[in-house]
Amino acid sequence: QVQLVESGGGLVQPGGSLRLSCRASGITFSRYHMGWYHQAPGKERTLVAVIRSSGGTNYADSVRGRFTISRDNARNTVSLQMNSLKPEDTALYYCNAVHELISRSSYWGQGTQVTVSS
Description:
Layout: E1 3-7, E2 10-12, E3 18-25, E4 32-39, E5 46-51, E6 57-59, E7 67-72, E8 77-82, E9 91-99, E10 106-108, E11 112-116
Parallel strand pairs: 2-11
Antiparallel strand pairs: 1-3, 3-8, 4-5, 4-9, 5-6, 7-8, 9-10, 9-11
């Protein structure tokens, strides 16, 4: 059974930092591209950052330079370090895993809430 379990969300003031983590089980983690998506109320779920099985990364324009995605294949974990947070970063953040060769092999976590407010 595949599970992606996110942690690290919470309430933070503008300009603050949070670190999200996602631990995967039931998959060969190193063979998966791992991504973080966010979804604000009434909006579509959109990509925040992705780290491929090769280690290459991509970021949404809105977070480039503020967020950093990383992975630890030994611990089956992907993390998202979020700095200089803005109110518009407020959303439910989801972890996603997609097999490097079989795109239909895709899984989602339950999500963790990030709220940026003073």
